[in-house]
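The passage that follows is intended for readers who have already worked through the single-chain material. We present the inputs for a multi-component assembly, then the predicted structure in tokenized form, and finally a short commentary. You are encouraged to pause after the input and sketch how you expect the pieces to fit together before reading on.
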Amino acid sequence: MADYGKKYEVIVVGAGHAGCEAALAAARMGCQTLLLTIGLDTVAQMSCNPSIGGLGKGHLVHEIDALGGEMARNIDATGIQFRRLNMRKGPAVRAGRAQADRMQYSARMKQVVESEPCLDLKQGLVEGLVVGGGRVLGVRTREGIYHEGRAVVLTTGTFMRGLIHVGLSHYPGGRAGEPAAEGLSLCLVDLGFDVGRLKTGTPARLAARTIDLGRLEKQFGDRVIRPFSFMTDNIGCEQVNCYIAHTNEKTHEIIRKSLHLSPLYAGIIEGVGPRYCPSIEDKVVRFADKQSHQSFLEPEGRNSGEMYPSGLSTSLPADVQLAYFRSMVGFESVEIMRPGYAIEYDYVEPRQLKPTLETKLIEGLFHAGQINGTSGYEEAAAQGLMAGINAALKCRDREPLVLRRDQAYIGVMIDDLVTRETTEPYRMFTSRAEYRLLLREDNADRRLTEIGRGVGLVTDERWQRYERKEEAIAGLINALRNIKVTEKNDELMAELGVNALPAGSTFEKLLKRPDIGIDQLVGLDDALAGYEAAVLEQVEIGLKYEGYIQRQREQVESFKGLEAVQIPEGIDYQKVPGLTIEVREKMERYRPVSLGQASRLQGVTPAAIAIMQVYLRKLNNERRPC
Amino acid sequence: MFSSRCSTIIAPATVVGESGIAILRISGSLSLSFLKQYFNPRNNTQSFASHRLYLGYLVDRDHKIIDEIMAVYMEPGRSYTYEPVVELHCHGSPQVVKEIITLAQHYGIDLAQPGEFTYRAFINGRLDLTQAEAVCRLIHSKSDFSRRAAINQMDGFLSRQISQIVMRIRQHIAYLEAWIDFPEEDIPEQNFAELVNDIKCINDEVGRLTESYHVGQIVADGASVVLAGLPNSGKSSLLNALLKRDRAIVSDIPGTTRDTIEEALIVNGLKISLADTAGLRHTTDPVEQLGVMKSYRKLEAADLILFLHDAAQPFSSALTDLMNRRPQTPLILVLTKTDLVQTVPSTTSFFDGSVCTVSSVTGDGLQELMTLMSDTLFADFAGHSEAPLVTERRHYDTLIKSKTALDRFVENSDNMTLDLLVSDLRQALISFEYVTGSVTTDDILDDIFSNFCIGK
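Having made your guess, compare it with the prediction:
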């Protein structure tokens, strides 16, 4: 095997959404970094839908940005339609969603990677890890090259033993038209990892010019675009439309008749697919009385002739796909450009990870993205960022970065991954966050910029921007506190349709009323003029929801106690008296790092936590010298 | 806290010295071999069938008889703790009990900590937390009513009621969460006003359960019934008559009772703590004054007041004074010494509550009074005597906490956004965790995915 010679600090395997963030983070933190990909032409490829964001996912993108990641800026630069969802359901559950120009998204990310000084982007298919003394030493490629690295981040996506299914025929592949990585997961099994199998799917891509778009309902982008990145001031691009299509009884009939040709129903697919992203055949079977399913028709790019029909992923044969599409209104003479397919791939049980995303088995080895049983570009990118940060911190012998559940969706996700059984590909939902009111898109910078600064990913420019915003927020709150409602305001109050407040009430108090918005107040006093929208928004949300936010903070505090109780790494659960066999097995399987994590393991009862608490206290007393 | 789970434990299951029979319970791996070692059954068997009573002698290490006893073995999985359990029914003498425990300790059996049996039952998955607590109540309570309340809970009566409430809240959360997390899916429209209405109903139910806590407390701890009235109205005589023994000194001299006397009795299955108080009158005697003050304090905490009035005397303002002082406390007007009067005076002009006439001498009216007492104490509860009683402080706290969250939801449903409202519902759900176990996000997601067709 040829030794490449150059000694890298961090090697990232795979240049998808996780890999790019991991490599950029490590390199930006000053580590000599190598990014290896099977194909240099598919960097940051959107394998499925051409969109970024949505509920929970948009939140992740904002967090990635606040920490100094790239995804938000990339979509801001290459998005072709932007919408903000849930505008009427409350600030915590508002989320940005954008359609991307798939080719441009990939091209821009490749450029960013290529221009990063400490980062080498190379083509190469990694066949195995080189490990010695329980540590990772480097990787070897199919081309016979050995790359030495102190830390390795695996972001293998759907490529490990990828198997593509179209109808009853199947063939190895990591993505349509690309080879699978056959050797790596075997190597991981040899190293002692539990490797499982998951399944996902994607719909056909349709030729736009063969669809009668005039017969479909249009969906427009927002008039005013709110960017994903805290560094983007505004986005002024011309937006494209999406369309809403519907299946009908005839479509369902075609699907039902062809179920025996689906590898899913014929029992050929062993991997578990996600419930939130069922194939159309699944939907038709499971919700048999639903007469129509909806599909968003999303353009794949500004100049692309392909369209992505969401909600219609499938593993049925190509001819059945064509038949059911043509049964839909507007699709009577549609042409399929690429058939939809299902793909099975290997993942590594994420309970074998520390909350830093480093594996417990091999020091210096990190996993991020679909290899951890997740799905989604945003979930992958967020893990990639964290793995890259922690790999770099490790190379610098610095304390690792673990975000808590009350700090970020990223913290929620990684904690979920390392504490819960994987039963399907993991996707972020806002309902997964118990402190949802604290984890908003709008305050991601306030939650995470300092942390990003601490690890060295936040540039001076971003930092100054953040400091300016914080100052403005403090200034505005102060101003609201000092302005009193005077008689002269009474007329204005009447105009706003608000009952007069007792004289001497402050504007702060006024703003807490549900019927008053900050926009209505800014014109009333010169001290309130000149603040930018993001500042007004922060102050308004902070004041209006103070009671609720305070309550969640209190819950966070009451929970921090258990989080702080560390469980020693080598603890022998056989020696903890009183644990039920079930709990003991659970603890041994997951080896939680803190009582907080232990308490979130399924089947671990409060009584078991009480027992653990007693035992750990006893253990500490014994250790303490008399 | 407790001994290791592989150890075997022993403890008296009955209160020693209070009854003729004492039961000792042994749980753990050594229990059966201990029985075989020291118990000589009358029928000479060496294999004990589960859940069968055997008569025989318990002997000590020198084969000397300690006591004639009944023994029962309960095989693992079918016992209270799920472990092998032996119960020894011996005579109630403290000496016998002590000797048996000493014998067991020599055999390597530990004396159980208070609650350790229940703790083991709980740890072994035999009981949920609600049930474990109810069992503790069962052990402590002595009267029928308490036992019924405890048994109701042990069957999961309260758990079931709460589970239903939790299910309904869960459904609403699942719907609202689906609405939040999947804004672009065609989730069927639901009328938000209807949802709010149902939450209001749930909140009312929680409110009713909360109110039952007071009754529950009476059932578990006993109700406090206070005898009040002017001096020499016959309070002490009634106390003695109810207790069927002479507990209080009775004399014709008003103000004989100067201190409060308290006695426990069971009335129609309900545990009652009956207090005789010094008569309520202005007095210059400093000792009697103290007694009167104490009477008023006692009345503050009463669940029921029996106001006694000598049927031969004219009515005074003492009754109305007392009713003004304690308007919330149920009160029964008891006309006493009816054996000494021809006709019972009418009270309807100034009193519309329950009236009862008794003679402590003849016993006339005593049974009616007792029925009236238990009926009054359970008045709040009449009509749904099978509804679960909340007897645990912790359950009460749980209900109060969830109610606070539900109240907030109801109050804010008009002017707050969905993210905040759902946080109230989730808070309510979390409050119930302590009773029913936790409902995880995965459970909510399960609800969502099984109810709504979701998927890009």
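Commentary: Residues 25 and 134 of chain B are 19 Å apart (CA to CA). The two ends of chain B are 53 Å apart (CA to CA). How closely did your sketch match?
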